[in-house]
Design brief:
alpha+beta, 54 strands, 20% helix, 18 helices, eight-stranded parallel β-barrel, globular
């Protein structure tokens, strides 16, 4: 074992006094941080910094995987170290190591290099909302390379000291490698600025973050004076001057001090009035009334957009000095180089400018570097910027690794706590105070975790929608990363083909979009809906129709059949008084075995017929993505002959496999014709058993995998092979085969990635439960697909009530709990509430399918509560009143639900202008499943307390008094209310 040299490094952290520095923990000769027994992640949080030289890396990749270093370790609490050529962090949550955090795959530690490594870790708890999470951030040379948030698992505390250079009790191999490092442990969470300052002060370290020039105090005072003068001007002059000042700041931060000084000294002589285009020195300002787009034009060197000034909010959308448009990753041998729109060795020039007949400003800009050429077109129209790009290269020894397009840095808002980051995870998450909570988002599109291609960044005064509006759903990654300086928005295109001559090109059909808007997630969704309806391949009409029986269905139950199942189902039918749909698992043997054979036994066919005889719809489970390597009773039946040739292959030609329940499966390339036919054949065969549809698991849920099999009908690593030339033609072919023999049968799949809307009639969003959840997907695809299902497992007693309420108000069909679970004696309250919700759902069916989602209800004083529910028993904050709105013509149907067993009340605020309704008198019709109908008149705007008894559902109808359709609505809901009120006398056949 090499001798471990430890040099104690004392940092004076920014913002702390010298006496504060005594609070840090230093290493003793035994590799222990003296006095560190009583510091914990879950109290004040902790940080660690180490300067490390990476040695002993001339190993094979296989050896790397078993090669470890421990930089910080506290027994049964946490570890931060090196595993192979990646960084590794983990924490112990009482009975398991819960995190397993690696550095990103594109970050690899290099031998012989010296690094400044750092981590911060802290557990946050908000008992009143039930929130508990642990944040881990890993830094390399001052840049954040990994942020992880672990929910509902706090690190376990203990009094062991923190070690360095060894990890006693963690496992073999962590304590004998001889890296030289300097380390300090802090009983607080260091800020980004703290860690960057350490890196800047260490001459051995090359910062991994961009170090911008500082603007002198004198220059800052000059700019402040110019801004004060600008505010005294009237529009449009005021905004043009402010935009020009932001451009000057851009020049100073980009190192163009001479050009900036000339503009400052000439400000008082420049006329900012009366022109759509203004030029001042090296600045060009283009004003379209809503916003001002500003370019720097440094002759022969740079023509680049510096500022986009939002006239409504009075601020620059860009963090201009860092905004890049694109990042192109080039690889030569084992080295990687990055070319951006702001790289010092890149020149850019305006090749064409037009103002077309629609008033749009159109800029064609060429960016050139010795190995790459990028043509970018930017179109400014109203409050919208559209970017298109074409990239090419002709250097055989250099490969194009990936492209980030767009790669934007959007400026933070002054009032960060009021800012919101909208991300398309599952249905959608609107995350408040995302910067201070260190929220980051990355996911593969299309998948359940990136169901759509857009996000938004906004506060109370306005914001910006951002998207890649890709009409063919090409494979890509979405990355939205917050920082104290800006929001990074990157869309990552992971592979580009290169021909034998070394020529490669990248020119996606998809434009990158920025659009200014006012409002919240609902308004951002309205912008994206325009793209869906006008451009998206899956939004152009529908591939099939949703059958009438599926429209009218209210409830889904999952079933793994046993001897009690039919008896339980009979009792449920009698109790509910209407049929439902069974999602049938295990009908063809053990779950997660023998895919894709899907052949049932005679007992299964008998059960199918018994269920159909009872009027129940049956949709059996299958998997449309995997082929088990031993696909019939632990034998290789067809896999080697048919499955392996169709499987996804990595660049080395190896089959990509995944394991489920310790069983290996090959992931199938959806573009392979033999696989497409295999799926179509088993779907049609199963439909011939007399069922009502087929569920194809994983298709609308799982991320893309790039396939490099040259025998498949796609180029190696093709981005359109997964969907546009894969699952889409597969599912279209299946639907065509179904149309004649099984016109009312449906296709369903897991989660709800958007391009499968229309190809599938029903989608199962079982994981639509998260902190800061919003029904964004439902808003965008309100009646285009039928959603059903939430996950169960480990639920609190009333958890299913809240899930059912959320499904009801958001136009989803109810349930997906198991038959066995719903029939338990202790589910009496849930059964009663579910029956009520089923009748409400049925009575509103026509409105759900003829209307759209209306703007969500505004409340004052609506209370929330913590609730454990769903996947991994996640604890989330839920409102005690669930609400939703259906918009039908000039009427709105408000649905209010109290899923709990205590009375609830809150104040409903109605603003007709905010809701885009006329200003005439309104009439409110109120219906309830528990009280007599009420009709009351209100002015256009009103506030009113809503009071809900336990398990009560209320519906308000708001529309113009002279609306002749209102009496029809009243009659329909009155009839339903009569049924609802009879439920209290029903006898529960399962109660104890």
């Amino acid at each position: 074992m090499k001798r471990l040299w430890i040099i104690i490094l004392v940092w004076l952290v920014l913002g702390r006094t010298s006496s504060d520095a005594a609070d840090v923990y230093r290493l003793n000769r035994s590799g222990i941080f003296t006095g560190s027994e009583n510091i914990f992640i879950s109290q004040t949080g902790i940080s660690g910094t180490a300067v490390v030289r990476i040695d002993n890396m001339s190993l094979t990749q296989e050896d790397m995987d078993g090669y470890f270093d421990s930089y910080f370790y506290k027994h049964n609490h946490f570890i931060f170290g090196r595993k192979g050529n990646r960084l590794y962090f983990n924490y112990f949550a009482g009975n398991t190591w819960a995190a397993y955090i690696d550095s990103p795959v594109d970050f690899i530690l290099q031998p012989g290099k010296t690094y400044h490594l750092a981590f911060t870790a802290k557990t946050h708890s908000v008992p009143e909302s039930g929130e508990l999470w642990t944040d881990i951030v890993i830094y390399v040379n001052g840049a954040v390379i990994r942020h992880y948030r672990g929910y509902n698992q706090a690190p376990q505390n203990n009094t062991h000291p923190v070690q360095a250079g060894k990890a006693d009790g963690f496992g073999t191999g962590w304590d004998y490698r001889g890296n030289t490092f300097e380390a300090v442990l802090y009983p607080w969470v260091l800020s980004d600025a703290d860690i960057r300052a350490m890196v800047m002060a260490d001459q051995r370290i090359t910062p991994a973050f961009e170090v911008l020039p500082e603007i002198s105090t004198a220059k800052q005072m000059q700019l402040a004076q110019l801004r004060r003068s600008a505010l005294a001007q009237s529009e449009p002059v005021r905004s043009r001057i402010l935009a020009a000042i932001d451009c000057v700041e851009y020049l100073l931060l980009s190192g163009y001090e001479t050009e900036a000084e000339r503009i400052i000294t000439g400000f008082d002589r420049f006329d900012f009035s009366g022109e759509e285009k203004n030029s001042i020195g090296v600045l060009e300002l283009f004003d379209n009334g809503n916003s001002i787009l500003c370019f720097v034009n440094i002759a022969g060197e740079k023509y680049h957009p510096a500022v986009w000034f939002d006239r409504n909010t009075g601020r620059d959308v860009f963090d201009g000095a860092k905004n890049e448009i694109f990042r192109i990753f080039l690889q030569k041998d084992s080295r990687t180089a990055v070319v951006t729109g702001r790289s010092s060795d890149v020149t850019s020039r305006l090749t064409n400018f037009t103002r077309d007949e629609y008033g749009r400003f159109i800029f064609d800009i060429r960016y050139e570097q010795r190995n790459v050429l990028a043509d970018v077109t930017i179109i400014l129209e109203n409050s919208r910027l559209a970017y298109r790009i074409g990239v090419c290269g002709r250097t055989p020894e250099i490969k194009l690794q990936k492209v980030h397009f767009p790669s934007w840095r959007l400026s933070n808002f002054e009032d960060l706590p009021s800012s919101v980051l909208l991300v398309p995870r599952m249905s959608g998450m609107a995350v408040p105070d995302a910067v201070n909570s260190r929220f980051n988002y990355s996911a593969y599109y299309p998948s359940g975790f990136a169901s759509m291609q857009f996000g938004a960044w906004y506060d109370k005064s306005g914001g910006v929608y951002f998207a890649v509006e890709d009409p063919i759903a090409s494979s890509k990654m979405l990355s939205f990363v917050t920082s104290p300086e800006s929001l990074s928005v990157d869309y990552i295109w992971p592979s580009v083909s290169q021909n034998e001559q070394g020529i490669w090109q990248f020119a996606p059909e998809a434009p990158a979009i920025l659009e200014l808007f006012r409002g919240d997630w609902f308004d951002a969704g309205n912008i994206y809906r325009r793209f869906i309806e006008n451009e998206a391949l899956w939004g152009q009409g529908t591939y099939g129709r949703i059958p009438e029986w599926l429209r009218e269905n209210s409830l889904w139950l999952s079933l793994i059949y046993d001897d009690r199942s039919l008896e339980q189902i009979d009792k449920l039918l009698e109790y509910f008084g209407m049929p439902f749909t069974i999602h049938y698992y295990g009908w063809c043997g053990k779950f997660d075995r023998d895919y894709p054979q899907h052949r049932g036994d005679p007992e299964s066919f008998t059960v199918f017929q018994e269920l159909k005889r009872r009027g129940i719809r049956v949709v059996p489970y299958t998997n449309g993505r995997l082929w088990e390597l031993r696909d019939r009773r632990d034998e290789d039946f067809e896999y080697s002959r048919y499955g392996e040739p169709c499987a996804v292959k990595d660049p080395a030609g190896k089959v990509v496999t995944e394991g489920y329940r310790n069983v290996p499966f090959a992931v199938m390339c959806p573009a392979a014709p033999v696989w497409q036919n295999k799926v179509a054949d088993f779907v049609c065969r199963i439909l011939n058993y007399g069922v009502d549809g087929v569920y194809l698991d994983q298709i609308a849920a799982s991320r893309f995998l790039l396939c490099y099999d040259s025998s498949h009908p796609h180029s190696p690593g093709a981005l359109d092979a997964w969907y546009n030339n894969g699952y889409r033609p597969m599912l279209l072919d299946i639907r065509q085969r179904m149309s004649s023999e099984h016109p009312d049968a449906i296709l369903a799949s897991e989660d709800a990635a958007e391009p499968y809307v229309g190809l599938c009639d029903a989608l199962l969003p079982w994981r639509y439960m998260a902190h800061n959840y919003v029904p964004l997907f439902q808003h965008c695809y309100w009646s285009k697909v039928q959603l059903f299902g939430r996950a169960g497992g480990g639920d609190e007693k009333l958890a299913w009530n809240f899930k059912i309420a959320n499904q009801l108000v958001n136009n989803e069909q109810l349930g997906w709990m198991s038959v066995e679970s719903l029939c338990r004696p202790n589910r009496t309250v849930t059964r009663r509430f579910l029956k009520s919700a089923m009748y409400v759902r049925r009575s509103l069916t026509d409105y759900f399918f003829s209307g759209t989602m209306g703007r969500p209800v505004d409340f004052r004083n609506l209370r929330r509560m913590p609730l454990h529910c769903g996947v991994n028993n996640l604890c989330i904050s839920v409102p005690l009143i669930e609400s939703g709105v259906i918009r039908v013509d000039n009427r709105e149907f408000f649905i209010f639900v109290n899923p709990g067993t205590e009375p609830q009340q809150a104040e409903v605020v109605y603003d007709h202008l905010h809701r885009n309704m006329s200003d005439s008198q309104k009439i409110v019709m109120q219906f309830s499943n528990m009280r007599v109908d009420e009709v009351a008149d209100y002015a256009a705007d009103f506030s009113r307390m809503i009071q809900l008894a336990p398990l009560e559902i209320q519906i308000w109808i708001i529309g113009d008094i002279d609306d002749e359709i209102l009496p029809v609505d009243a009659q329909i809901l009155s009839e339903a209310a009569t049924l609802w009120r009879s439920f209290s006398t029903d006898k529960d056949p399962f109660s104890e």
